[in-house]
């Protein structure tokens, strides 16, 4: 069984010690762990996707001015805190990708949005667990090139799950 708390501890260890961590050496010296919302079971979804009839290639801009190509796969609709929301799932050779910006962006969460890798289930629905929402590496280090969340994936609802803003140094 998947344990969210254990996953978060392992991620903190990776950020603190691994040479592939996005943190700079200076950031690692004061790193005490990432900040998260408490687990929110209501935001662990298994929902149908409305597949797009025509799978258009979507050029997604990145934070460094590059372009990454994704296929617009389909959309998912769900309710969060009484608000109906709709997001587009993208696809690439690496799998499914769900970038999103919610109403907490720039306040409690990273201003450019967070990412998910939804899983397609055998019955065609998708498993989307917002508790696994994470900041792109460019939230920690500007040397990384990260896809910029498309306008169609900016929602008004708050997603109180997953990673919060990164704080480089505790005061």
Order of helices and strands: HHEEEEEEEEE
Query: What is the domain total for the residues?
Result: 2
Q: Spans of 5+ residues with little confidence (pLDDT < 50)?
A: none
Number of helices: 2
Give the amount of beta strand, in percent: 25-35%
Beta strands, count: 9
**Envelope shape:** globular
**Sheet with the most strands?**
6 strands, antiparallel
Separation of termini?
37 Å
* Structural class category: alpha+beta
- Helicity, in percent? 10-25%
Q: Mean pLDDT score, rounded?
A: 94
Write down the Rg: 16 Å
Describe this structure in a few short sentences.
This protein is an alpha+beta fold.
Can you offer a commentary on this structure?
Helix content is 12%, strand content 29%. The protein has helices at residues 4-17, 25-30, and strands spanning 44-47, 50-51, 57-61, 67-80, 83-92, 95-100, 114-116, 119-120, 126-129. The termini are far apart.
């Amino acid at each position: 069984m998947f344990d969210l708390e254990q996953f978060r501890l392992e991620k903190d260890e990776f950020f603190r010690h691994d040479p592939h961590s996005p943190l700079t050496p200076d950031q690692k010296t004061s790193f005490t762990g990432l900040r998260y919302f408490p687990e929110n079971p209501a935001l662990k979804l298994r929902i149908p996707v409305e597949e797009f009839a025509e799978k258009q290639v979507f050029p997604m801009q990145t934070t460094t001015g590059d372009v990454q190509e994704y296929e617009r796969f389909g959309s998912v609709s769900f309710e969060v805190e009484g608000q109906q929301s709709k997001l587009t799932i993208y696809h690439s050779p690496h799998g499914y990708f769900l970038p999103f910006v919610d109403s907490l962006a720039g306040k409690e969460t990273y201003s450019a949005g967070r990412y998910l890798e939804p899983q397609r289930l055998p019955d065609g629905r998708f498993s989307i667990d917002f508790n696994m929402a994470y900041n792109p590496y460019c939230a920690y280090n500007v040397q990384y090139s990260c896809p910029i969340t498309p306008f169609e994936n900016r929602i008004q609802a708050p997603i109180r799950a997953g990673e919060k803003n990164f704080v480089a140094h505790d005061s």
